[in-house]
Amino acid sequence: xxxxxxxxxxxxxxxxxxxxxxxxxxxxxxxxxxxxxxxxxxxxxxxxxxxxxxxxxxxxxxxxxxxxxxxxxxxxxxxxxxxxxxxxxxxxxxxxxxxxxxxxxxxxxxxxxxxxxxxxxxxxxxxxxxxxxxxxxxxxxxxxxxxxxxxxxxxxxxxxxxxxxxxxxxxxxxxxxxxxxxxxxxxxxxxxxxxxxxxxxxxxxxxxxxxxxxxxxxxxxxxxxxxxxxxxxxxxxxxxxxxxxxxxxxxxxxxxxxxxxxxxxxxxxxxxxxxxxxxxxxxxxxxxxxxxxxxxxxxxxxxxxxxxxxxxxxxxxxxxxxxxxxxxxxxxxxxxxxxxxxxxxxxxxxxxxxxxxxxxxx
Length: 362
Known about the structure:
Blueprint: H1 16-29, H2 36-43, H3 45-48, H4 63-82, H5 89-113, E1 124-128, E2 131-138, E3 141-148, H6 151-163, E4 173-177, E5 182-186, E6 191-192, H7 206-221, E7 224-226, E8 233-236, E9 240-243, E10 246-248, H8 257-268, H9 283-312, H10 314-329, H11 351-359
Antiparallel strand pairs: 1-2, 2-3, 3-5, 4-5, 6-8, 7-10, 8-9
Helix pairs in contact: 1-2, 1-5, 7-8, 8-10, 9-10, 9-11
């Protein structure tokens, strides 16, 4: 590429996919992560790739895009000069794959979502605080398409997915589009663990619990951290557990691998209990009965989890205990006990599990 005089961008020979990929790399490396400026560049990446000369802009460009170009064009051209061998093959391939394979299906789905309540669509899988997921079928294969509420969120989700490539039992990236605000992932088998009622919940095997722990360890080794909410875990009787949501680690965070592993108790003991009416005259009676039922699930599972950790992962358990003890000595920290007798109703079915946990040192 030849640059003469004022910074110019003349890409006649380059494929548009390559140009759009370069814009995405610039957004990732040339501006601050997860900012409004980065989101705008990603938003207009496809449109920017069509501009042949940044000093002679088409007259019909949105004002926001014109302002963006004027602010960043010198930095962008200098970035390309310094990064002549940018590795953009993955991004280029994604742009082509999305356009050819997924864009028509996503356009059809978005049209359906625009009319009525999208949660009533047969494709709807569920919603979280940052977006909603839908089932799509392309070439006979089923995928999960997650629409985020912002481009920044799309970018936030893509980064950990790229790091987790190839880790079994985790969400795997297939394609994405900043233009459509969507991330396409492999559809994981199973049922969200938070949707199991006490009556229909499966008995998780030690083998599957160990598999889940090892999945979290693999993610941790790639600089990734799980979100321990129960809604972020799936379970299939054949495949075991899958992890739906994980993020880049935050530097200096006290929430490390030992805390992540212990937090798996949330997913392992999650059940869908009846919602009680606090105004009902028998509310206290039902709440006490429900608390006993919850502990019939929680306490035996904790015995098993700590038993597995003591046998197979003693270093993780020891590090968790060390930090737990250290935090308790800190007057500025409030550290709740994992097993707090004050909130466990006296019941003969619970006592053996409490005794066992005490014997194990908890």
